Amino acid sequence: MAQTLPARAGKPPLAERPLLDQLQASQLVVLFKVLGNDTRLRLLHALHRDGEVPVGELAEQVGMRPQAISNQLQRLTDRGMVAARRDGNRIFYSIADPCIPAVLDLALCLTEETAVAGDDPT
């Protein structure tokens, strides 16, 4: 039987952890706010799919200007979700936190399984 990501990372399963305290809950709110942006989610997915990607290519993939993408990537970098590597004039980004793919996968699963009429975010 395959271990879950937290178990592989040396963390106890969620059911075995004590109830979240106020600080932990507040930290999760901050995390969800960072993830609560459609551009940042798309960037994380692109990075997971393609590995290490330069800003210009990410900008093309999501249809935005490189400067706007750089601003969003900075938020993700500040949070430790992605890492940057400079090669000459180009900056390449990649997923730094191994939990990101699992979070995205679970979030997509939840939206696909729990979608109801009227969920259109626009």
Averaged pLDDT: 89
From the spread of the alpha carbons, the general shape counts as globular
User: Which class of secondary structure composition applies to the elements?
Assistant: mainly alpha
Number of helices: 6
Using brief descriptors, characterize the structure shown.
three-stranded antiparallel β-sheet, 3 strands, single chain, mainly alpha
Describe the structure.
With 122 residues, the protein is mostly helical. The protein is 55% helix and 11% strand. The protein is built from six helices and three strands; from the N terminus they run αααβααββα. The chain has helices spanning 5-8, 22-35, 38-50, 55-62, 66-78, 100-114, and strands at 53-54, 82-87, 90-95. The protein has a three-stranded antiparallel sheet with strand order 1-3-2. A hairpin with a 2-residue loop joins β2 and β3 (90-95). The longest helix is centred in the C-terminal third of the chain and has 15 residues, at 100-114. The protein is globular, with a radius of gyration of 16 Å. The N and C termini lie far apart (41 Å).
